[in-house]
Design goal:
mainly beta, globular, five-stranded antiparallel sheet, 5 strands, single chain
């Protein structure tokens, strides 16, 4: 998958978070990706390969 996201991008993940939303904001890009839930503000960090596997689409 080619990189189409950057810091401040809004992304939709395949599975919803525990708070029932699947929209996240990218807050860090590097070897690891940090995303922040737009509903409950929880932050999750995962490696790039895992992130790209779980990514459904990029909204903005």
């Amino acid at each position: 998958m080619k990189k189409e996201y950057d810091i401040e991008s809004i992304v939709v993940m395949k599975k919803p978070h525990a708070c029932q939303t699947n929209e996240w904001k990218v807050t860090r890009v590097g070897v690891d990706i940090k995303i922040k839930c737009l509903n409950c503000s929880r932050e999750v960090m995962m490696d790039r390969l895992e992130f790209e596997r779980k990514l459904k689409k990029v909204l903005s």
